[in-house]
Specification:
Length: about 525
C-alpha cells in the first residue's frame, strides 16, 4: 500500500489488492481513488479568469496579500467531480437499508424537502418582525400541538436542537422545579445500565452525579434495585422506553409511581418514540419530561452530526420552567414570548439564540400531515413488524439477546453464535461491507456481549429486508463453516480497509497543511506589483 504525504493510504493497493483482482490505478469498477482536494493542487492556478483590476493594489494599503492564498485552484468540473466522487464513497439511506440501531435511519420523503425549501420558510430571517413571520409561527404552533397530542403531555419546549440537547433542557427544567420547591439538595440521577451514553453524560453536564440501576435477565429495569436506590437525594430517573435493547419497559407505570413517591421526576428518553407513536401516550405512563428526536421519529435527514431537533414535552409540574421562546396567540395573531417575565417568569432561560431548527420543524410537520393520525399509528406498527421479521429470520443462524417474546422497533443479537469461530462482531460487520451492506450498531448496548443492534424502520420494503437477511444468513453460515479469513481481513472490497478508528477519533487530523506552495514567477510578479 502506498501512502501520500499526509500518511493517507492511496493509490493501487489501498483499495484491496488482496481481493483477488487489483486494478492498476486503484480504481474499482467506475469508482476512482480520490485524493484530497488540496492534493489535487493547482496552487498557482485559479479556476476562473478575471481581467486585471482597474485600480492597483495600493488602494488596499497594508491589506494586500503577500503570500499565496492556499486554496486549490481547480476548475468547476474538477471541483464538482471531487465532491460527487466523495459522495459515492459514503453510504446513504438513499442507496440501501441503513441498519444502525438506536438511530432510526429512515427514508426521508422528498415532499418534506420540497416544503422545507419553500421561500417563506427557507429564506425567513430569525430576526424578521413577527408580523411578517406569522406562517412560520403557525407551523411551529401546529407542530407543537401534534407533539402534545401524540404524547398526551400539556406543554412542549420546541427549541432544543438534538436529542442530547433535549435531555439537557428536560434536566434543567427538573433542576429548576426542585430548586423552586426547596429540594435543591437532590443531586443524583438514576440511569439504567443499558442507557444511551447521552443520558449519564447529560446528567453529569448538569452537575448531577449518576447512579446505575441494574437490569433484569430479560432486559428491563430491575424494580427492586430502583426502589433500593431511590431516596431524598434523587432528582430524577432517566429511562428509555422502548429501551435500547429494543424492549418495552413493562413496568413503566410502576417505575413512574415509585419514583414520584420518592419525590423524583421521571425523564423518559423518547428517541425510540418511533416504536410506539400513535399507540402509547407517554403522558399516560407518568412521564414528566421526554425529548422527541424529530430527526428520528418524524423522518428529516440526519447523520454526520446534524441538523436535528429535539423538542421536549413536559408535564404540568415542569411546564412553567420551560425555556423561552414559545408561541402564543394574543387575539390579533401569533407572537413569541421571549422575556422571562409574567407567565414566563420561572423559565430557566433559553436553549438557543432563536426559535429552533425551522427546517426540521417543516419536515417533521410535512411527515405528520402526509401520514395523518392513522398513518402515524401504522408507522409504529410497521417499524415493529419489520424488526420482528428480521429477528425471526436471523434467529435461524444468530442468537437473539432476548429470545423470549417479540421485540419492539429493533432486533438485538449477541455474539454467542460466533463462539469458537475466531470471528468477532467487528469482523462480521466488516464482512457485511463487502456484501454491500452498512453494518448494524455494534457493541451497544453494553449489557449484551458483542451486541449487534439492527433497526430497519417502517420505510424498508420486504424485498430489502429479505436481501439483507439473505446476506447476513449467508455470512453467518460461512462463519460457522470455518471461512474465518473472509471475516478477519474484511473489508476486502472497500476503498479503504481497516482503519485505526481509535487513533482517528482520539487524534483527528482536521486540517491539512501543505508545504508552502511555490508561487509561479508570473503570480509572484502580479502580487508584488
Ligand atoms: C439518538 C439517541 C439519543 C441522542 O439523540 P441525538 O439527537 O443524537 O442527540 C439519545 N438516546 C437514544 C436512545 C438515542 O437513540
Amino acid at each position: 500500500m502506498t501512502m501520500n504525504n499526509v500518511g493517507r493510504p492511496t493509490g493501487p493497493g489501498a483499495g484491496g489488492a488482496t481481493a483477488g483482482h487489483a486494478s492498476l490505478t486503484g480504481g474499482r469498477g467506475l469508482l476512482q481513488d480520490e485524493p484530497l482536494l488540496f492534493e489535487l493542487g493547482g496552487w498557482d492556478k485559479t479556476g476562473v479568469d478575471f481581467d486585471s483590476a482597474e485600480h492597483d493594489a495600493s488602494d488596499l494599503g497594508d491589506l494586500v496579500r503577500t503570500a499565496a492564498i492556499g486554496l486549490a485552484g481547480l476548475s468547476e468540473p474538477e471541483t464538482m467531480r471531487h465532491y460527487v466522487r466523495l459522495s459515492q464513497k459514503n453510504h446513504a439511506i438513499d442507496l440501501a437499508l441503513y441498519p444502525l440501531g438506536s438511530c432510526t435511519m429512515k427514508h426521508n420523503p422528498r415532499l418534506n424537502e420540497k416544503m422545507a425549501r419553500l421561500a417563506g420558510f427557507a429564506d425567513l430571517h430569525p430576526l424578521a418582525p413577527v408580523s411578517t413571520a406569522q406562517g412560520a409561527l403557525e407551523l411551529i404552533d401546529r407542530l407543537a400541538h401534534w407533539l402534545k397530542t401524540l404524547t398526551g403531555m400539556p406543554a412542549v419546549a420546541m427549541t432544543p436542537k438534538a436529542g442530547a440537547h433535549g435531555e439537557l433542557c428536560g434536566l434543567l427544567c427538573i433542576k429548576a422545579a426542585h430548586e423552586a420547591a426547596g429540594q435543591g439538595h437532590r443531586r443524583t440521577v438514576l440511569v439504567p445500565t443499558s442507557a444511551h451514553g447521552t443520558n449519564p453524560a447529560t446528567a453529569a453536564f448538569v452537575g448531577y452525579s449518576v447512579t446505575e440501576i441494574a437490569q433484569t435477565a430479560d432486559g428491563r429495569v430491575d424494580l427492586a434495585d430502583l426502589e433500593a436506590k431511590l431516596g431524598d437525594h434523587v432528582a430524577a430517573i432517566m429511562v428509555t422506553n422502548p429501551n435500547t435493547c429494543g424492549l418495552f419497559e413493562r413496568d413503566v407505570i410502576e417505575i413512574a409511581r415509585i419514583s414520584h413517591a420518592h419525590g423524583a421526576y421521571f425523564y423518559c428518553d423518547g428517541a425510540n418514540f418511533n416504536a410506539i407513536v400513535g399507540r402509547v401516550r407517554p403522558g399516560d405512563l407518568g412521564v414528566d419530561a421526554m425529548h422527541i428526536n424529530l430527526h428520528k421519529t418524524f423522518s428529516t435527514p440526519h447523520g454526520g452530526g446534524g441538523p436535528g431537533a429535539g423538542p421536549v414535552v413536559l408535564s404540568e409540574a415542569l411546564a412553567k420552567f420551560a425555556p423561552a421562546p414559545w408561541v402564543v396567540h394574543d387575539g390579533t395573531g401569533l407572537k413569541l414570548v421571549e422575556e422571562a417575565a409574567g407567565e414566563a417568569a420561572q423559565a430557566f432561560g433559553r436553549m438557543c439564540a432563536f426559535q429552533g431548527q425551522m427546517g426540521m420543524f417543516v419536515r417533521a410537520y410535512a411527515y405528520m400531515r402526509s401520514h395523518g393520525a392513522d398513518g402515524l399509528r401504522q408507522v409504529a406498527e410497521d417499524a415493529v413488524l419489520n424488526a420482528n421479521y428480521i429477528k425471526a429470520r436471523l434467529s435461524a443462524e444468530m442468537t437473539p439477546a432476548f429470545p423470549d417474546g417479540p421485540c419492539m422497533h429493533e432486533a438485538l443479537f449477541d455474539d454467542s453464535w460466533l463462539e469458537g469461530t475466531g470471528i468477532t462482531t467487528l469482523d462480521f460487520a466488516k464482512a457485511m461491507i463487502d456484501e454491500g451492506f452498512h453494518p448494524m450498531t455494534m457493541y451497544f448496548p453494553l449489557v449484551v456481549h458483542g451486541a449487534m443492534l439492527i433497526e430497519p424502520t417502517e420505510t424498508e420494503p420486504k424485498r430489502e429486508l429479505d436481501r439483507f437477511c439473505d446476506a447476513l444468513l449467508a455470512l453467518a453460515r460461512a462463519a460457522k463453516a470455518g471461512d474465518a479469513a473472509r471475516f478477519t481481513g474484511a473489508p476486502y472490497l472497500a476503498p479503504l480497509r481497516r482503519l485505526d478508528e481509535t487513533l482517528a477519533a482520539r487524534k483527528p487530523k482536521l486540517t491539512w497543511r501543505p508545504d508552502p506552495p511555490a508561487l509561479s514567477e508570473e503570480r509572484a510578479q502580479v502580487l508584488a506589483s
